[in-house]
Amino acid sequence: MASQKNQHMKINLLHLKEKLKTLSGDDFDFEVADYLFTIKFDEKALNQMQKRVVSTNILDNEVFNGGFDQFYLNNEDEYIDDAIDGLREFGATEFLELAIRSKEIYLRDKGLYAHNRNPHFDTLDDRFYELNHYGELRINYVKAHLDEIIK
């Protein structure tokens, strides 16, 4: 039974990799994130590359939905180090600077703004929204490391 399940998983991974070859942009990014979130929520361990991709996805979703304040309110500092590593690895230097600064603000102010919005994130949020998004950099990273990320 276990070998049948493993065979089914291998077929699904091959199918996903083939599907990814036909996708680009947001569709590619969504499929990869969906796969990684499924692994994460099944409580399976993610490797470092997978953590970088999923953490930057979480960062994006939270910041675009409610700013850095929401990112930290919902996650504390669980994902920021992997997101910083991912941004560095992807070459998203302007976003990297924002993420590093946000962590500094969070660590400095977390006791002061545990239940209220931290106004010190506002300029970081504005800059995050203004920049050309790094999604293509993340996609290129995933494509370059597909076998280590989709496994």
From TrEMBL:
Domain DNA mimic protein DMP19 C-terminal: 45-145
Top-level division of the source organism's lineage: Bacteria
InterPro entries given in the database record: DMP19_C
Gene3D superfamilies in alphabetical order: 1.20.1420.60
Pfam families with a match to the protein in the record: DMP19
Name listed for the protein in its UniProt record: DNA mimic protein DMP19 C-terminal domain-containing protein
